[in-house]
Amino acid sequence: MTAHEETNPGSPAPAPAQAGATPLLEVRDLWAGMDGKTILKGVNLVVRSGEVHAIMGRNGSGKSTLAHVLMGYPGYEVIRGEILLDGRDLRSLDVTERARAGLFLGFQYPVAIPGVPVTAFLRAALRAVRSQDVPPREFRKTLAAAMREAGIPEEFASRPVNDGFSGGEKKRLEVLQMLMLKPRMAILDEADSGLDIDALKAVAEGVNRGIAAGIGVMLITHYQRILDHVKPDVVHVFLDGRVVLSGGPEVARQLEQRGYEWLETPGDTASPASPATR
Ligand code: ADP
Ligand code: MG
User: Fold this and answer.
1) Per-residue pLDDT for 131 more than 50?
2) Is 39 in the pocket of ligand 1 (CB under 6 A)?
């Protein structure tokens, strides 16, 4: 089905990738929001093992909300729908449990953690996800390899997390985390926004390393340009809280030429048939 399916050297327990196998990630009729405002309005998505999916949509369409809700970020209310990772329902799991189940979120706006060096942060993250300490030697080896792959100079290891980092450095650190944690499925929220072309290429290269290592990737973006460097298998157009169109890479090029207006359905005020609030 895709070029990436057979390569899975970094993952301890690769899932079978035959067509018809349990999808890696499945989102079914997902409605969610916050503070009484419904933002996601019936999201449906299926990502199979080894696939790269792009989600494109203009600002405010709910892309980051989708990313946060999938990861179980606190403060969001899931109204209805299902989120399945390897067939397992994530809804009752908190963020850490979802990370242990193999989900990763790279933030659109990574936060700084003054006083905490990158190494200490990554070590704690790895320990949390593996539920056990990582031997120092193994940690140093893994870190050095991941830093090379993410294009991050060695001296970053001792700097405080994102403190004084440029936009490009912050996004590279998100990619570094992904490469260290080796999730089953990584959601990268605007890994490309605000980057110059060199930083964009570095980020794309890191993402491609992850893909080659068997990580399923959902690339959220509102520009086509990162998709010149990271080839998506499926492109979804996200509009007003749901996927309105899915197709191949040609969809991204269509958007570039035509914008989003042609996909809008005027007067369509969607609401769940029976909002089962919980
Ligand atoms: P995108 O990532 O596609 O730009 P977001 O998911 O960030 O979109 O936002 C979707 C909508 O939800 C926007 O209308 C935004 O104003 C609203 N929204 C986002 N965060 C909050 C919040 N904390 N409280 C209320 N509304 C929010
Ligand atoms: Mg966003």
Assistant:
1) yes
2) yes
